[in-house]
Amino acid sequence: MSDGHYDANEAIQNYPKGTFQGYCFYHGQDLERILQGGSLMLAYDHINGDVPEKIDIGNKLKSELEKSGFKVIWNGTTEQRIEVSNIKWQNRGI
């Protein structure tokens, strides 16, 4: 998890300040889980870290996923990652 947060913050530094409010990611173990037929777990954060607005990032992510037809399982707190349970991973390699 810490590598994902570090990588996201590093990538954000390449853009003008104010471009992003937050980010989300999954890591290698999450990918392994989904390849075995499980659900996808997404981590998320606000660019300023653990601030009250962090919950807004989770809510926006949940809303956009649901608009795209995904089933989202999340208790609405910053203590839980967002689970996408009806995703079918398809590797469309080059």
Give the H and E element order: HEHEHEE
The number of distinct structural domains comes to 1
- The residue fraction in helices comes out at 25-40%
Strand line-up in the sheet with most strands: 1-2-4-3
Stretches where pLDDT is under 50 for at least 5 consecutive residues are: none
The overall pLDDT, averaged over residues, is 91
Description:
The protein is of the alpha+beta class and 94 residues long. It has one domain (2-84). It has three helices and four strands, in the order H-E-H-E-H-E-E. The protein has helices spanning 2-12, 28-35, 54-67, and strands at residues 22-25, 40-46, 72-73, 82-84. The chain has a four-stranded antiparallel beta sheet with strand order 1-2-4-3, sandwiched between helices. Strand 3 (72-73) and strand 4 (82-84) form a beta hairpin. It is globular, with a radius of gyration of 14 Å. The protein starts with a helix and ends in a 10-residue tail after the last strand. Residues 1-92 form the DUF6891 domain. This is DUF6891 domain-containing protein.
